[in-house]
Amino acid sequence: MRFLFLRQTLSWISPWLIWLGGFYGLWALFVSSQGLWAVVAEHWPMALSMAIGSYAAGSTPMGGGTVGFPVLVLLFDMPASLGRDFSFAVQSIGMVSASIFIFCRRQLLAWSMLRGALLGSLLATPLGILYFAPLIPELWVKLSFAVIWGSFGILHLYRLREITAHDHAGDPRCPKDFRVGLLLGAVSGFAAVSVTGVGIDMVIYAALVLLSRVDLKVAIPTSVVIMAFSSVVGVVVKSVTGDWQPGVLGNWLAAAPVVALGAPLGVFVVGLIGRKPTLLVVALLCIVQLIWTCVSERATLGLAGTLIALCSVLVCLAGFEALRLLGLRRAGNRNAIVAEDDALPVSHLAAGS
């Protein structure tokens, strides 16, 4: 019996193990051939930070860059553009690894919205990296990140019970969801991913749980896959243009081996302990980094800049609430249709009698 269980486990997990073996082999070959072991050791704090970040990447609708960005930018006082480029690089390993693990487990995904978001991101993220991100000052990159994830954290503090109660799996062929995914994927790819390296996962997740009222077991894996895809797009664009920030390679070499295992581990462990505690902790961290950013940049921002940042959070929250109200309306219509369909056989029987 144990042998049969082990054989079945290896059969479904083998593609992920092949990917993992290939990555570690190429990583070790590159580090050894270039004599970079000292560089890897020098950047051990980033590897330690991403041990936590990669778990959050696999278990929540937040990319690994959500931890990597503030660690580099707020803790180590690095440029915000370095935090963005590092997010692309590290997520292209960690979240891709988590996505392969998700596919191997055959987890349900919200395919209709996901297909739209993939197309929107593919078209808009390169344009944002090339033409929009260079126009944004470093300070506003920091604030954009802080506002996006701060509002996300506040949302979960007061809507967590409702969000975790959804049990709808989503319609894999819903044209409305495809159009919503296309629009949100394009807008967030152009305006958020290109600037901060993250954001599209949170936007698609918010649309799924607030508008489509989809189960977290479907919404979170879907957000992982779209962020993995957008990160790979970002890596390709950055590599083709040669526009990588100095310092990305050393941090990536230290963190990549950790996130390759950490993100899939998050996918697995959260199924055992539940998503509610993890989401609550991550929400609090998001709010802490918003406060940290505003306090650390108060001299540059001044009162007016701080008020603009806080008002931006309120705008994001208003957008979330608008999605939620639309979602309640759609859910009401869907329930009415189901109730009507359930009543049809009764009416037919009554007519027949």
Explained architecture:
This protein has helices at residues 2-34, 37-42, 44-59, 65-75, 80-105, 111-132, 138-163, 175-196, 200-211, 216-241, 248-273, 275-296, 298-352. With 353 residues, the chain is mainly α.
Annotate the secondary structure layout.
Layout: H1 2-34, H2 37-42, H3 44-59, H4 65-75, H5 80-105, H6 111-132, H7 138-163, H8 175-196, H9 200-211, H10 216-241, H11 248-273, H12 275-296, H13 298-352
Summed up, what is this model?
By secondary structure, this protein is mainly alpha-helical. The chain has 13 helices and no strands. Helix 5 packs across helix 11, helix 7 packs parallel to helix 13 (298-352) and helix 9 (200-211) runs antiparallel to helix 10 (216-241).
Number of domains: 1
Average predicted confidence as pLDDT? 84
- The gyration radius over C-alpha positions equals 21 Å
Would you report the number of β strands?
A: 0
Number of helices: 13
Indicate the overall shape. Answer: globular
Give the uncertain stretches in residue-range form.
Answer: 346-353
Q: What proportion strand?
A: under 5%
Structural class: mainly alpha
Main sheet record = none
C-alpha termini separation: 56 Å
Helix content: over 70%
Order of helices and strands: HHHHHHHHHHHHH
Transmembrane segments: 16-40, 52-76, 88-104, 116-133, 180-206, 218-237, 249-273, 279-295, 302-320
Family: Belongs to the 4-toluene sulfonate uptake permease (TSUP) (TC 2.A.102) family.
Keywords: Cell membrane, Membrane, Transmembrane, Transmembrane helix
Protein name: Probable membrane transporter protein
